[in-house]
Amino acid sequence: MWLRELKRRRLKGRPFPGAWEELLWERSLLWRHLPPEDREELQGHIQVFLAEKRFEGAGGLTVTDEVRVLIASQACLLMLHRAADYFPGLYSIVVYPSGYLAPKRERDQVGAVIEGVEARSGETWPRGTLVLAWDAVLAGAAGRAGCSNVVVHEFAHQLDYQSGEADGAPLLPRELYPEWSRVWGREYARLQHALARGLPVDISPYGAKHPAEFFAVVVEQFFMCPQGLKARHPELYQVLRRYFQQDPASWLPR
């Protein structure tokens, strides 16, 4: 373990390539608005992440530095100001040019198993692989996807898996568990209640599918639409601010 940490310190100490920084200024909305000290910390995390994770192209996509750096920058945003473990269950990131078809298997309301395929822009599992669609990565990075960001969404799932089960509660400081349970349970129930009655909602309806999806979509909104989340769901915003030790509403413009 100490050898790994030594290697990571050395990677963080390397000069950040100018071409990578230029790319991020051009392509990433969040990078442009991060406080300077956060950008400096993020540079180190990107270097470690790229050294430890394997990228693979699928569907004809060629993995370039643009692909690797833009994905790494958004994934590592979730590690700022916290003990960075670099998603230990994740070994490879597979990138398609655009949305792809994946097998789907689920039970209906009477318990029958339904199998088929569905279009996806990302998915991940507790160990092994994370899959992304490059066009969705670009849209999320540029802020063209509204409050959505597929990289943040899928890496939020990776955080959730670290507690042992994808249940909407990542590994938390002990003192944060009671507040997290109260706030997240209430907000998840409110979303389901509103959708069941056909009421308008300001959190993605996809979050009502499962507590793990609720966590992922709210983390997306925390980083991509922080002012709206803070204004309409202040307790949800504050508990995420404590967990991530970040306050994007203070630096990301509306």
The name CATH uses for the topology of the largest domain is Cyclin A, domain 1
The percent of residues in helical segments reads 40-55%
- Tell me the number of structural domains: 2
N- and C-termini, Cα separation: 42 Å
Architecture (CATH level 2) name of the largest domain: Orthogonal Bundle
* The CATH homologous superfamily of the largest domain: Glucose-regulated metallo-peptidase M90, N-terminal domain
Instruction: Please give the count of helices.
Output: 11
Beta content comes to 5-15%
Spell out the helices and strands N to C: HHHHEHEEEEEHHHHHH
Radius of gyration, in Å, reads: 18 Å
Question: What profile does the largest beta sheet have?
Answer: 4 strands, mixed
Lateral strand order in the biggest sheet: 1-2-6-5
Runs in which pLDDT lies below 50 for 5 or more consecutive residues are none
Q: What is the CATH class of the largest domain?
A: Mainly Alpha
